[in-house]
Every structure is written in C-alpha cells, then in structure tokens.
Amino acid sequence: MTRSQKLLLSFSAGVLLSLGWPPLPLFPLLFAGFVPILWLEDAAYRNQLSSKAFFGYSYLALLIWNLITTWWVGATYFGTHDISTAIAGLIANTANPLLMSIPLVGFHRTRMRFGNMIGYLSLPAYWITFEFIHLRWDLSWPWLTLGNGLAAFPKFIQWYEYTGALGGTLWILVVNIFLYRLLFIFLSGRIYQNYRRILLVAILTMVVPVILSLGMYYSYKETGKAEKVVVVQPNIDPYSTKFDPSTLQLQMQTLIRLSKEKVDSTTDYLVFPETALPDGIMISELHTNPFIKELQHFRVAYPKLKIVTGISSYAIYQSAETPTARKSQDGTYYWDAFNSAIQLDSTGNIPIYHKSKLVPGVEKMPYPKIFGFLESLALNMGGTAGSLGSQPHRSVFFSGSSADSTGAAALICYESIYGEYSNEYVNRGAGLLFVITNDGWWGNTAGYKQHLIYGTLRAIETRRDVAQSANTGTSAFINQRGDISDKTPWWQPAVISKTLYANHAITFYVKFGDLIGRLCNMVTVLLTAFSIYSRIAERFKLKKSL
Predict the structure, then answer these.
(1) How, if at all, do strands 484-485 and 494-502 pair?
(2) Percentage of the residues of the chain whose pLDDT score is greater than 70
(3) Directed axis angle between helix 515-545 and helix 116-134, to 10°?
(4) 3-state helix vs strand vs coil in the chain, percent to 5
(5) What CATH class is the domain 225-354+397-511?
(6) In this predicted model, what pLDDT tens digit does every residue of 233-242 receive, in sequence order?
(7) Cα 10 from Cα 5, distance rounded (Å)
C-alpha cells in the first residue's frame, strides 16, 4: 500500500463521516465512514503499516471529520475577539480527534494481541467507553457522539427510548465492521460460505433496527396533558446589541410585543430564550427587579400563563461558599455569576435554575486545581470573566404543588446535547422540556442547525415534547416521536405557538440511563485486565524458560 493510498483512505474516512453528519441528509454514509480506517488498521495488523503510522492516519481522518463538521466552534472569536472562544474552538477541533484516536489505537493493539474476534469486539467497547467518559468529564465535548449523527431521521431511531444515543453509536460501529469484513473477503478473492453468513448478519444488523423503529414510529401516539406553549425568538444581535445596557428596555419591549402576537387566555407557557434578561440580576432581588416586575405585570392579564425565561444572575456571599466564587475588587465580599432560568407564575414564587453543564474553556475552566492559572481566560459569552457558577442537580419548575402541576424543565443551550444528564429533569417530574439558547454566536453555520436537530434525541429518549426558544438561530417544536415543526427562519424575529402534551410516563432509558455505556466500560476493564495479565504471564514464562 503506497503512501498516496493511505492518505486517500484517511481523507475518505473523514469526508464520509462529515457528509453523513447533520444537517446533511446523507446519514447512510456513517455506516461506511469507519471502513477506510479499518482498512488502514488491517494494513497495520499485517505489518504493512506501523502502529504509529496507523495512529497518524487515524488522527488525520478524525481531524478532517471534526474540522468539516464543527469548524464553527471558534467562530465567535470573530465577533467578540474573545481569546477564550478561539482557544476553546482550537481545542475542540484538534484535541478532540486526538482523544477519539485513543479507542482506535486500543482496538489495534487488542487485535494484534488477541486476534480478530476479541479485536473487533473491542472496537465498539473502547469507542463507547470513550463517548461515555466524554459525556461526563470536565473536558466534555460530545457534539460528535456517533449516535447523534442519526438525529435528523427520527423514524429510524425510535428505539433510542431504550438505548439512548449510545445505542446508535453501537449500531454504526457494528455495521462498519461487517461491511469492512465483507469488503476484505471480496477483495481478497476468498469468497466462501462464511461470506454468505456475514452478508446475512450484516443485512439483518442494518435492516432489523430500521423495521422495528418504523413500527414504533407509526404506532406511537402523543400522550399527556395538553398545554398551549408560545415560543419567542427576539433576534437580538449577541455581538452588538444584546449586552449593551442602553438597549435593555428596547429588548424588553421586543419580547412583550412579540408575545402579544400569540399569547391569549388559553396559553399555558410563554418561553423566552437564554439570557433574555441579559442585565445581571441579583438573586436576592428577583422580586424587585424592574424588568421582572414588567414581565409580571404583562403576565397578570393571563391568569394561567407561566413565563419561563433565561436570565443572567448573581449571588453575593460573605465568604467563598462555592469553588467558583470570586472576591470583589474591594475585598469586602465574594460573588458568583450564573447563566440561569426562572419561571414567573401566579403563585408569586420565582424558582430559579442555574445552568450546570457549562461549556469548557468558555463558561468554566476545566479542572481548576490544575488549570487554575488560566481562570481569567474563561469567559461567558456576553461578558463575565472567570468560570460561571452552577448547581449540582437539575431543577424542574412547578406551579403550586408538584402533584397537580405539569413540571417544566429549562435546558440551557449546551445542556440539551446530554442524554442521561437530561434524564434527571424527567425523573424530577418534568412533563415538558424547554431548550432555551442563544445560537446566533455561531453565525449562519451548521452549528445552530445541529443543535436543534439533536433535540430530537432528547424527545425520543424521554418521550417528552420539546420547545426550543433561540434568541437567534432557530426556534421550533419537537414532538414525542422526534418530529420537528414550526421552524423559525434564521436571523429573524419570530413567535410560534403550538399545543404540546406533558407526558409523565418514564421510558426505559430515563429509568436506567446509559446501560450500553456501562456494559462497554465493564468490557473495557476486563479486556484491559486480561491484556495486563497475559503480558505478565508471558514475561513469567520467558523468565522461567531462561
């Protein structure tokens, strides 16, 4: 195999995975995207390529996939000139493929040591273990979790209510392995009886999940209490206008003007986007803040109306009560900044939720004990230096007692791409999911489109209706089958209304979470232990023979 052929395989893998990713409608390419990488690994397995070279070509393939698919991550730098966003984008697009290479190298080493059967078994185990960890650690960037790639076609993934997105990852990898083995047998000219068996298993692996999903899709009926929801997209420019104090009153007028177009006496929920109230509000002053009072005054005309909105909030302490608390300039107090959501209703209470999944390098500094000296580089888009505060658990908004209330969860931006994380909202009583976001930071790129499409996964996994309110980007509704409707245009003010259904049934995935990930963790641990044991045993035998 020439160097040109190796580079062609590497580029082919990266391009296939990129073309198969949302918002492009070519998802079947994902089932062949790893075939060129498996071809390269087979060359390394047969000593036609060094292990180091296999790593290099694999990294190149994954780098191409990351760059083509998520190049927009650092695009906010050009609007804000904030170095932290540029760093975050650079890390996401160069370090992420490096991390992705780890399970591929582990698969190669395992196959070299234990042969085909255990080797190919290890690939999905190692990859899913990587994705499982990547969803949970401080350097999390799971935008390219393989199972996310099927989100634009909910008819084919209804079984995510049992497996979550990691089930899609498993499906994609297994089909890739079968396709490669079929291709290898065909090209080697050694077509024998096992070829037919592998072909049959490959077809069944590809077709059976689709047939099951289609049956689930067309037989599923929306269930739950009907709730009329209005979503507002104010379209405030996040770069030049949104965080300008002189525009705050105009922004409030825009929110109320758009709301009046759709809100009536039958409306149950009015949803505003992330940081719809961008001026920092002290948590202790929620009831007296003039903008909140203005919203309350608007709400009074509609007694059953509940307003869910994003806000920028602050808390003051006498001592450093949280790891993110910072000392005031005069040294007399400590304070935290939050990206928050509140609900306004007829009870007079104002429950608040602080965003908990913060964007690494932008809203928080990962592992502050290690990288604390870089803390000042962490910057919330819109203006607060240092890591934002958060809360350890998900909050759900109820009106009155939880027994007779719908329960609404506000997933703030980045939080909606986390499956098992989002389950906690449902386990705490959420019948509706509201995604509030400010996707205009990324410009007119694939970023905001992918973000909306990923919402279909949360809808299917939890069987909850989803309403997305974007300041800029796209707002829409997603039903319990994952169908997106009422999409608003890019970079235009808009308001949409729809009757959603607050479902309180608990799916298998909500109850048990990422079982596939935990099973793969166990397999990875066992394979690692077995590999260490075999190496020790070999050395012992060698010493004994000497």
Answers:
(1) unpaired
(2) 91
(3) 130
(4) 55, 15, 30
(5) alpha beta
(6) 999 998 888 8
(7) 9
Mean pLDDT value across residues 381-393? 70
Q: In whole angstroms, what is the distance from residue 481 CA to residue 216 CA?
A: 9
* Cβ atoms within 10 Å, residue 378: 26
253 close to 294: Cβ distance less than 8 angstroms: no
Strand partners, 484: 478
CA distances from 369 to 324, 337, 372, 374 (A): 12, 20, 5, 10
Q: Are residues 93 and 102 in contact, defined by beta-carbon separation less than 8 angstroms?
A: no
Residue bearing tokens 């976001």: 437
Among 145, 142, 167, 140, smallest CA distance to 156 is for 167
- Which tokens hold the place of 204? 């069944």
Distances (CA, A) of 512 to 161, 516, 521: 11, 10, 15
Closest CA to 439 of 280, 248, 274, 309: 274
**pLDDT tens-place string over residues 263-283:** 999 999 999 999 999 989 999
Is residue 400's pLDDT more than 80?
Answer: no
User: Rounded to an integer, what distance in angstroms lies between the CA atom of residue 210 and that of residue 204?
Assistant: 10
Residue indicated by tokens 């979470």:
513
H or E stretch at 497: strand 494-502
Distance CA 244, CA 279 (A): 9
Radius of gyration of the chain measured on its C-alpha atoms: 25
**Integer Cα distance of 501 and 230 in angstroms:** 13
pLDDT tens string 428-445: 999 999 999 998 888 889
304: Cβ–Cβ under 8 A, 6 or more apart, which residues?
Answer: 265, 266, 267, 268, 346
| Cα dihedral 381/382/387/393 (nearest 10) | -80
Question: Whole-angstrom Cα distance, residue 115 to residue 106?
Answer: 13
CA distance 398 to 430: 9
According to DSSP, residue 326 is labeled E
Of 316, 315, 394, 309, give the one whose Cα is nearest residue 355: 394
Peptide bond into 209 cis (omega under 30): no
Q: What angle do CA 447, 450, 451 make, to 5 degrees?
A: 85
Residues 287, 302: Cα–Cα separation, whole Å? 19
CA–CA separation, 99 vs 320, rounded Å?
Answer: 35
DSSP assigned state of 392:
S
- 204 neighbors 230 (Cβ within 8 angstroms): no
Domain edges within the chain = 3-219+515-542, 225-354+397-511
- Distance, C-alpha 91 to centroid of its chain: 17
As given in the structure block, the two tokens for residue 129 are 């273990």
The token pair at 479 is 């039903």
